[in-house]
User: Fold this.
Amino acid sequence: MTNLIYRLMIIDIWRPIFKGSGKNRKTLYYEITDIDDVLKTRKTGYVVRYLCDYCNSNIIKTTTSSSLFRKEYQYNTIESQTCRSCRTKICEYETKKTQIPFLVVLKSFEEEGYELLTTESEYNKPNRSQIKLKCVCISGHFYECTWNNWSRGKRCGECYKTNRFNNSVNSKQGWDMYNFLVWKYTNNNYKKYYNVINPLNLNRGKLKFDYNIDHKFSISEGFKNGITPKIIASVYNLEMLTRSENLSKGSKCSIKLENLLENFY
Assistant:
């Protein structure tokens, strides 16, 4: 006979009656079945009606028999059934026990010069899951991150990009620096003025019939003549050529410097 605690918790179990098979199988109705048989043979797919043994409410809840036999369902087992409302309260309690106090979070942000915008009430609100902490970095950028990412050292993405760029610049000089800056501004302008530079949506790539971005007044000539990288990378100096055309053109110029400057200024 089923243990008394199961009888107190489980009201009854219902077996689905199907019509058809495979994709055409449909549930016609449910019929009550023996509780002991389901628990003993661990049958799944049945509907279990129960009373929550945590809050002792007289409101009848339902679950599936599958949940009774899965170890990962710690709140829905043969030994104990907990309703959704109680499970939420338990999870909130467990979360609060391991939650980092707000003042600790606030101090951590302030020590690095970040202004935390998330308030204490927002941080402690119920049913939260990996709340995104809103802040302003030391450079004035708005930034969002979870406490887990912050504690692992992740910081403002905009500052990271800027620092990476500055580090790249500091490691270059002369021609390398000039070429680096031209292509940085070129790629920015290509994204900004895509419809002007590449209105036919030509495919960029390294294959023979792919297209490349070409600088009409070449980068090497711009370097020799002391022309600023932004002018060489301007939309007025960019066009699409096939890879073979671009390679054969090399450092030659397809326009005169005066024409470029007239359009730029």
The longest helix spans residues 174-192. Strands lie at 10-19, 26-33, 47-50, 61-64, 115-116, 133-136, 142-145, 211-215, 238-242.
